[in-house]
Amino acid sequence: MVIETTRFYVLDHLKTPKDRFTYLEAAFEDGDPSLIAHALGDVARSIGMTAVAKDAGVTREALYKSLSEHGDPKLSTLLGVAKALGIKLTVEAVDKGNNCAEARLGAERTRLMDGRTKPDGRMAAGN
């Protein structure tokens, strides 16, 4: 008996701002830098790399390279992409007994849940 499978295409599951946020949140919680860069790339592709690159202030080619699985974006690129995607990075203390801080993805959940987005589906900044 042959088992038929279908190819998983992540962009099929990143249609709404809530879907994108949940996906990025999981990547940031994992903490693997290459996974985070790859997830940011997936979300950027779901919106449109050209538009995200323009909003982030980088070339499309540089964005593809930075957000590839093996990419290592500069902090300025990471912050620009976050802004272009309508998210912000925040710092939250974690209980490790040594008062270390952990960077994690933050967003205003109410903004995501009430549907205030840009016409192209990106989360509206400042809402």
Any chance you could write out the topology, listing elements then pairs?
Blueprint: H1 17-30, H2 33-47, H3 49-56, H4 60-66, H5 75-85, E1 88-93, E2 101-106, H6 109-113
Antiparallel strand pairs: 1-2
Overview of this protein structure:
- The chain has 127 residues and is mainly α.
- The protein is 47% helix and 9% strand.
- The protein contains six helices and two strands.
- Strands 1-2 form a two-stranded antiparallel ribbon.
- Strand 1 and strand 2 (101-106) form a beta hairpin.
- The longest helix has 15 residues, at 33-47.
Short structural summary:
With 127 residues, the protein is mostly helical. The protein has helices at residues 17-30, 33-47, 49-56, 60-66, 75-85, 109-113, and strands at residues 88-93, 101-106.
Indicate the overall shape.
Answer: globular
Radius of gyration over all CA atoms, rounded: 16 Å
Low-confidence spans: 107-114, 116-120
Helical fraction: 40-55%
Structural class: mainly alpha
Q: Mean pLDDT, nearest integer?
A: 80
Strand order of the largest sheet: 1-2
The rounded distance between the terminal residues' Cα atoms is 53 Å
